[in-house]
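Dig into my protein:

:::
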Amino acid sequence: MNDQDLLRYSRHILLESWDVTGQTRVNAAHALIIGAGGLGCPTAMYLASAGVGTITIADHDRVDLTNLQRQIGHTTESVGELKVDSLARTLAAINPTTNVNRIAAKLTGAALVDAVKAADIVLDCTDLFATRHAINRACFAAKKPLVSGAAIGFDGQISVFDPRNAASPCYHCIYPESDSFEETRCAEMGVFAPLVGIVGSLQAAEALKILSQLEAGESLCGRLLTIDAKTMDITTLRLNRDPGCRVCGANH
C-alpha cells in the first residue's frame, strides 16, 4: 500500500483485529455481487469504499424510475441505463482504485460456475428463489463462501453459507427447492427502502470480516439473522446442516 492507501483505509487499519494485514487481504480480494438492485447497491458501495481490490457485478436489468426509491447506487440520470454500468460509475466515484468488472447478463449455467470460481466470495443480492438455488449450488461446488441477503415488505434476513466449514448448512438446507414454491417480488409486495440498505450493509460487513480473516470476529455461518423493520426486532436463529440435503448432504 502507498501513502494514499494508508490514509484512505486508516480507520480500518486502526482496528486492533484488522490492521495492515487485514487491509492487505481485502485489497487483494475479489468479490462477486449478483444483483445490482436494492441489496447490491449498498453492498457494492461499502465493499468498494473498504478497498476490495476487484468487484464483479452481474445484472442484466436496466434502471427503472421505480428502482430509485431504494437502489441508492443509481440516480435519476441513470434511468434506462444498464444497472451494472450505472453502479460501476458510482463505485468509481467512491474508490477509483477498485477494479470493477461488469456482467450485463443473467448468470446461469457455465457462466455462473466460472464467475463463482473466479471470486473469493459471492454475495447473493437477487430476488428470485430459483436464482438463489443456482448460486448456492455453484458456491458449494466451488467451495466459495456465500453471503445471502433478502428483503421484502418490512422483513429482511441474512446468513452466511460457507462450504469450507464442514458444519455449515447451505441455502438448500434452510429453504429446500420446490417446484410448488411461489415467487414473490418487491414489484408485487413492495419493500421498505431503508431495509435493503440495512441488509445490504450487513452483507458487506459479513463479506469484509471473511475477506480480512478478522480474528476477533465471527461470521453468520450457521446462523440466520432476521429483521422486522416495523418493530426493529432483530432475531438470530441457529441453523444446522441437513444430512439429507440434495446439495451438501452426505449423499449429494
DSSP finds ten helices and eight strands in the chain. The domain at 3-238 is CATH 3.40.50.720 (Rossmann fold).
